[in-house]
Amino acid sequence: MTFSLDLFSNAIVSGILLGGFYCAIAVGITIVFGMLDIVNIAHPAFIMTGGFIAYFFNTQLGIDPLAACAVAMIPAYYVGRLLYRFYHVAFERRGEESLQGLAFFFGLLFIIEVGLLLIFGVDYRFVEAPYIGPTIEIGFVSIPMRLLVPLIVGLGLVIGIIIFLSRTFIGKAILAVSQDPLALRLVGGSPVKVKEVAFGLSIATAILAGALLIIIQPIEPSFGRDFIGRVFCITVLGGMTSLPGTIVASMILGVSESLTSTFLGPSWSPAIAFSLLLIALALRPEGIFGR
Amino acid sequence: MTTSSLTASGAKSRTAVMSFPLVLLICVVGSAALYFGLDLLGSAYMFLAAYTVLQFVALASAWNVLGGYAGYVNFGVAAFFATGVYTSVIIHKTVQWPLLATIAIAAAAAGLLGLGMGYLTLRLRGVFFSIATLALALVLNTIVVNWSFVGGSRGVYVMRPQSISFFSSYERYLFVVMLALAVGSVLVARAVERSWLGRGLAALKDDEMAAECAGVPSLRMKLIATTISGALLGAIGAPFPFFVTYVDPPTAFSLSIAVNAIAMPLIGGTSTWLGPVIGALLLGTFQQIATVTISSALNLLIVGVVLVVFITVAPNGIIGFVRDLREKRR
Questions:
Q1: d(Cα A98, Cα B33) in Å, to the nearest integer?
Q2: Do B311 and A100 touch (CB under 8 A)?
Q3: DSSP 3-state helix, strand, coil percentages of chain B (rounded to 5)?
Q4: What's the CA gap between B115 and B138, in Å, rounded?
Q5: Separation between Cα atoms, residue A209 and residue A170, nearest integer Å
Q6: Contacts of B182 (CB under 8 A, 6+ apart)
Q7: Closest CA to B181 of B234, B222, B227
């Protein structure tokens, strides 16, 4: 194995940049799965939907992918609320979320993926924006703009959500449900309504993450599956309910993947998330989501 | 709680009329009738189509041992299936043992994989097991893609043996092997359901904490179920390379396998061994017809929609739906 400082520092930098993007894909799962215990394994399918929304408006109308998805977050929020309401009535309220609910999201993942496949085909799709080409060079470290923009937007998104959760009334209610739903009911709050808002928020973040994904690389519909392991790995590694934990775990995953693909080859990097997830689950199960 | 357990025991006493020798007789007579019926039709395609449907019957029954009885959802069906597929490829490329020995080794390999996965994740809530199995398929896929001995991402050709004794063609031999695997999986699933293991799994599915308090060794039971289920899934994968004669990662780790193996038991009904069989026969036959008449992508979309509609409208599958109708009529 050849080792050089040049290669190593470039791998670290692009790992951190990648980690910024991973924040954006995982934050929705941290809210919905980590805090509120809804196992939305269809989350990556919504990320892909976001990517294709960006693609559609970029190629048809020439709109900036980030702007297109920022607007699309609003309808996505309401779609998410409707989806949770359906999930709640059909599964959660009947106490069937463990088997049927999980299968529901699995079916949904599948329907969205095949749906995108039928609409957009299996070709790789990409977008055009002024910040996709150029690269900033600092000494021997190069920072591609197409990775820097996702880092800024991803970190901004998570920090925005941290502020939202700690400052607003509904945000505090989400934290309250995550800590003790029964206690919230006792003081007259409705966990279902709070969860509905949180789920809508989570889907909206997935759409924005999709725009970041298609800025980073061309996408095709079956791509989403690669992110299932990643998003859950980040949430578990980050300590389930912690958003700063999500940022740290995203960086750890990004850097590990980047180092792996630099020194072992890019075809090995999909295995990293799973290995980290298994290590986390096997070594510190109580510590990570301690009761 | 009480009503559902009452109806479950009621259903059990009703189906208990079917004793083991009777079920075995039905299986043998049914298998023979199927073989000679297909033989009468005289087309090789019918044997291939029947192989695929039987493979789904076997996969659905094997998945249900853990997923249906214990409620632990294994999304990594493709991982276990592909373990069988690639074990078979490795044996074919090295020692070239006969298919039956290959199936046994594939079962052992996939069973061990299940045991290892279970040991790492089954102590946690079921959700973590499901997520880990989802990622497992991806990791094994990565390993196979990087492993040139088994063909890597280019895939590998597997030559069928020139001749086979007792059978007029290798397709027919493969069909009989898969028929035996399907019947075997169903009988194993039935045996598990009726044993102490099945009762224990049902108890921990209802309420794991309560079952643990009542003395059910839940971790051990889940590990046994995962190993049995994994071994069956691996065994079903072993003849696959000879069936398709060319294997690459997208075929071995196909999403259609994972989706169908989960959709079929849920549509048929997960609490008894008969549910996956009904689901697999219905959905499998439908897909064989649909792949010929409509596109295969659309066909997979239909499976997804049918799955979501079924678990929403009839959460206990066809079996549960029929049972509810009967209860109402009384």
A1: 40
A2: yes
A3: 80, 0, 20
A4: 18
A5: 23
A6: B54, B55, B57, B58, B61
A7: B234
Q: What is the distance between the alpha carbons of residues B59 and B56, in angstroms, rounded to a whole number?
A: 5
Residues on chain A touching B264 (C-beta within 8 angstroms): none
Tokens linked to A187: 């003081």
Backbone angles phi, psi at A188, to 5 degrees: 95, 10
- pLDDT tens digits for A225-235? 888 888 988 88
CB-CB contact of B233 with B84 (8 Å)? yes
- Element of type H or E holding A142: strand A141-144
Contact A100 B305 (CB under 8 A): no
Tens of pLDDT along A159-183? 999 999 999 998 898 888 888 878 8
Residues A32 and A38 sit within 8 Å (Cβ to Cβ): yes
Spatial contact of B145 and B249, defined as CB atoms under 8 Å apart: yes
Taking alpha carbons only, the member of B60, B62, B65, B81 closest to residue B285 is B60
**Residue B128 Cα to chain centre, angstroms:** 21
Enter the DSSP assignment of B102: H
Chain A residue numbers touching B297 (CB-CB < 8 A): 114, 117-118
Please enumerate in sequence order all residues whose Cβ is within 8 A of that of B19, keeping only pairs 6 or more positions apart, or say none: none
Instruction: Output phi, psi for B98, to 5 deg.
Output: -65, 160
Determine contact: A32 vs chain B, CB below 8 A.
no
Q: Token digits for B254?
A: 């196909």
How far is the C-alpha of A206 from the C-alpha of B67, rounded, in Å?
29
Q: Is the pLDDT of residue A133 over 50?
A: yes
What is the distance between the alpha carbons of residues A241 and A272, in angstroms, rounded to a whole number?
Answer: 22
The C-alpha of A139 sits at a distance from chain B's nearest C-alpha, in angstroms, of: 34
Cβ B133 vs Cβ B261: under 8 Å: no
Its pTM stands at 0.87
Run of H or E residues at B246: strand B246-247
Helix, strand, coil content of chain A in percent (nearest 5): 80, 5, 20
Contacts of A74 by beta carbon, 8 Å cutoff, 6+ apart: A204
Tokens of A289: 């989501």
